[in-house]
Design a protein that fits this description.
Blueprint lengths: L1 E5 L3 H13 L6 E5 L2 H11 L3 E4 L8 H10 L6 E5 L4 H10 L3 E4 L4 H8 L5
Parallel strand pairs: 1-2, 1-3, 3-4, 4-5
Helix pairs in contact: 2-3
Amino acid sequence: MKILVTDDSRVMRQIVIRTLRQAGYDDHDIIEAEDGQQCLAKVGSDKPDLVLSDWNMPNMTGIECLEALRASGSQVPFGFVTSEGSPEMREKAANAGALFLIAKPFNEDTFKDALDGVIA
């Protein structure tokens, strides 16, 4: 499985990747994007099986990226890993087609709870 991790912070991308590995998802191909625009392009070119995206990023936010993907007909599984998890954000994410929203702080158990059933 190919997983696209999108965050404008390189350090946060590395933390997400490390947490994926700690959660037992260490045998998957991980690719990275720095913002929603790059994520949108990589979904088209690299065909990931899952997108894990931050919400707040320059150029194109995670929710704008998800909305653009769905408007283009892409049904790639998409989840958020972000610093905020208000009920309003969770509702907006779900309405846009996100499978889950993981709010920081998170750990490997949080990832397992959200990703079991999504990652084969």
